[in-house]
């Protein structure tokens, strides 16, 4: 601070004010440097697919090489506060990790210098769905952010069963996936006959839904086609199967069998009549 001697005595207050301004500027500059350290996750929910790996993206501010000094990265479940993954001063802290995530999580260690704190979660499960928190700390500061993880599973190729009855037929499709899918049935005129069907869901031990959809047709006296459709909106995945119920061969076989039975019956009746007549003559 350069002040003339003439202003030194009467400018004491001025000097104090100048010093105060400098202190405030220095302090605010230091605060802005610390405030620049930020942690960001993906703004949209992430989908984990059953049995596949998922990357939960997280990044932090990197200013220089010192940003890796004292680096701590902690991934945690928000709902249960379970430790999903912990990285402390250059080493993993697996002893703190929840057993549910043992052997399924890792960081991209070579990307830490670029501020990449993303976590790879392998072999996705239904129980993985929920809120996750990414916490990062180093000598520059600390911050955290959260993201949502959604679970989904592609529905398997459905198994088809058919049961013929005297009054009609019963069709059943079975498959497995997640979450609950929308199911519809159509006849050969492409009319929605879903109200005639019943769809059941049963959740298995791995969290997937076992889907059974049953359609009962009362009129099975002619050949006709039917279509089964399933849609998993979470994965934008659809399954459509069309099958034809052909009863012409079965009907002709039944007619042939009936004609044969009728012929045999007539022969037996004719034989009995002849036998009665012969016995009557010889009496």
From TrEMBL:
InterPro entries: Ig-like_dom, Ig-like_dom_sf, Ig-like_fold, Ig_V-set, IgSF_BTN/MOG
Entry's transmembrane regions: 260-282
Primary location group: membrane
Gene Ontology terms for molecular function: signaling receptor binding
Domain (Ig-like): residue spans on this chain: 51-148
Alphabetical keyword list: Disulfide bond, Glycoprotein, Immunoglobulin domain, Membrane, Signal, Transmembrane, Transmembrane helix
UniProt-annotated location(s): Membrane
Record-level GO BP terms: regulation of cytokine production; regulation of leukocyte cell-cell adhesion; regulation of T cell activation; T cell receptor signaling pathway
Protein name: Ig-like domain-containing protein
Lineage: Eukaryota, Metazoa, Chordata, Craniata, Vertebrata
